[in-house]
Amino acid sequence: MRNEVKEMDKVKSVEVVAYFDSKGHPRPQRLRLSREAEERQIIKIDEIITRELSKKAGNEMFIFYCRSIIDRQSKEYVLKYEKDTCLWLLEM
Questions:
Q1: DSSP string of 60-83?
Q2: Helices (H), the chain
């Protein structure tokens, strides 16, 4: 289990289930982490603590500060959505 936590300490691309409002702003619901030996874990986003819109080098990015129960512990993490590339990034 400790190896799984260490693996998540870096930025990685993840699959996310989200819905978008009428203005095109995403609201993530769940994410899927790929772990060792092709094991996947579905994580429900229990709370979006705050949401920001950032523009760097002309690229809009939605930044979500979230909380979920992962491995029976409450954990906070950052989930980012790059609007131009439609890519979701996870930082833990």
A1: EEEEEEEEEEETTEEEEEEEEEET
A2: 2-7
d(CA 40, CA 32): 6
Give whole-number Cα distances, 17 to 26, 42, 54, 88, in Å.
Answer: 10, 10, 21, 10
C-alpha angle 13-84-78 in degrees, rounded to nearest 5? 40
User: Which has more pLDDT, 87 or 9?
Assistant: 87
40, 58 contact by CB (below 8 A): no
Min mean pLDDT across 6-15, 46-55, 56-65 is at: 6-15
Considering the entire predicted model, what is its pTM?
0.82
Share of the chain above pLDDT 90, in %: 67
- Domain-wise residue ranges, the chain: 2-91
Q: Which residues pair with 52 in a beta bridge?
A: 63
Q: Which two tokens stand for residue 30?
A: 């769940």
